[in-house]
Amino acid sequence: MTLSMPAMRIPERVLELEARFGSPRVALGNAADSFAFGRALDDVGLGTDRTESPALTTQAASSVSPGFSGSVVNADGTLADDVPYADLFRAAGAAYGIQPSVLAAVAKTESAFDPAAVSPAGARGLMQFMPATAGEMGVDPLDPASAIDGAARYLSSNLRRFGSLELALAAYNAGPGAVQKYGGIPPFAETQAYVPKVLAAAGISSSPGGNP
Question: Is residue 2, in this structure, part of any structural domain at all?
Fold first, then answer.
């Protein structure tokens, strides 16, 4: 999460988030929505904190490519070979029916491929899992293989639930409860920007209006 806002808007943003997910105490009782609540709190004037973690696995430390800014897709739409963790994206994509380029685009958008990224709200790792969500899903957020596998499972579950990649991505960002409530991509500026950003990074055109 990279957006920030003036301090005077912080209370307003917190109220908006509580309206979306309920109070933090309630949100933390639901893994999917606590995932989204915590990630959304990163926008409350805090920006994104990228810090190295002593818990970073050997695999992550040896594989990370800081500063990767290239395209995650080839001209034909397939995943580019030089994308960090390309083999992991391909394996998870094949296992759960998610395009590897979409998983890579999520990682690029969420953490810039930094497996040690830690947000101010506590979201961790390559795919920015909140601890409660990671625990319930059995994901080690600082292990790229586990994080990518978990993200693929989560996206696949929401894809089956909502029948649309756009809505699955919206649920990844805002929580499935918000997508269900609004019957589409929620009218939140962050989510409205997030979905087309991920799709563009994956080389996929979004449909008019942001909904399928």
Answer: no
